[in-house]
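Re: Re: token formats

Sure, here are both.
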Amino acid sequence: MREGTNHISTYTEQQDKLLDSACGNCTNQNCLIQKNINTPNIGKLVKARKEIKCKKGQQFIMEGASVTGLFFLLSGKVKVLRTGLHGKEQIVRFATPGEIIGHRGFGTEETYPISAIALVDCTLCYFSKELLQETLRETPSLTYDFMLFYANELNRSEIRVKSLSQMTVRERVIDTLLYINRKFGQTNGYFSLLLSRREYADYAGTTEEQVIRMFSILKKEGLLTTKGKRIGISNITLLKKEISEHNFYLDS
């Protein structure tokens, strides 16, 4: 009986330490590690966590580099991109706090198929590939959450590829504007994230010239507002209506 009591006492102390750790105090409710902080066998992973600071414009994942682990965005904003035909950059997505970066190369891949660049000063939580794989083998609930995460990611990717192939340039630009609005919101009538026209084009899968032309048209129609490099949506309802037939309006 005494041994059992000691075991419970030791386990409780370990859990208290985890709850007092950086992961335990994390406010990113979407983070899979934080979500499973009370799960047995996760203590070793949390203890080995490394915090990385990145300055605006700094690249922390290079396409083609060997996979060493996964990054969880603790704070900041990141763009994830890959190289397309003729060396043209294609922005795959933008990441916000709580999201995983580098997962497309995790598992059977030996190299990262994407690059990642900080759009503002960022803080990243890094977990090594070997230790994370070990934890996944020992922690069914975390493994299950990762499985659902990958299933959702695959579904989103397939829907996006199908939808973009059927969209006109105007519709792709509108889809991009709605995506940025969902992801980052607006402050004082303009997107909270400042992006270049080229970055809008790289996500929409079109050219910078076409984006500038479409912005001008949408502004004349009263659907868009601009102030220097800043962009704002004047009528979200009408923009949603324009791409509603593609049945492609995802939450993130």
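Second one below.
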Amino acid sequence: MPDKSVPEGERIAKVIARAGLASRREAEAWIAAGRVAVNGAVISSPALNVTARDRIVVDGEPLPGRARTRLFRYYKPRGLVTTHSDPQGRPTIFRALPKRLPRLISIGRLDINSEGLLLLTNDGGLARVLELPATGWLRRYRVRALGRVTQQALDGLKHGISVAGIHYGPIEATLDREQGANVWLTVGIREGKNREVRKVLEHLGLKVNRLIRVSYGPFELGGLDDGEVEEVVTEELRKALGPGLAAQANADFESPLEHEMPLARHSGARPQGSEPGIQKRARDERLDSGSPLRGSRNDKKKQRRDRRGGPRPKYPRPRA
């Protein structure tokens, strides 16, 4: 017999998040603001369980039926904020994304000066699970920093480190090469605390001047260029999550799509006044391979320059 002491259904904020309208935290804020009604009555607290029998309305519109869980790989350019709206009026990734995409939320964040792989999803439950440190997915970065550091000092990060009263878990860091006054590093973290890579390397005497996320768990930046977004095929997503994470996120791989959109690559807008950063390249080329990146045919006529106006840096070849 079912346990009558356990409330039936799911928390209202969780249901709204699974519908792809907002993250759970955003849904709770909407409820507090009086934007959500259940069975004709406006609610003010997220401490409410609902079932499929309840009628949920957000901003006067019925809650849409649950859509299939989807995931997108996005190359976030520098100069964009990872938020839907910014109090300071800075450009955001969601305004830069192609308009044909469904309503998406980010899985974690990249700060305004960081670039590279950002995962986007229409499923708030999936976002929450993949952000949890307990999930243990490695987030890997290529980092250029001003200063000098030894591999021995980087190896000391394997056991974690405390900086300004904040403890960071084990960090994998490799010195790839020295280039002028800079060093190139490959850094892997699993917690993803606020500005973790920058703060830890600053503690070691390095000043990060370029930070590119190249992978998040099993998903890689691959051949995406600045501002491009590409959907992960459903079967690939199902395989990457495995039955454990899929069940934990309550992912839905059977429901219909919100609207049909080809699983092709789309280019979004870039910050005003900025140039494309990393060139188009073969799909099988990996940013972290260490091989020199091939540019477009136009590069033979005119060398591309980075956003600071200088010659574009070549990515270092990792030591064997």
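The chain is about 20% helix and 25% strand. Residues 273-320 have pLDDT under 50 and may be disordered.
- S.
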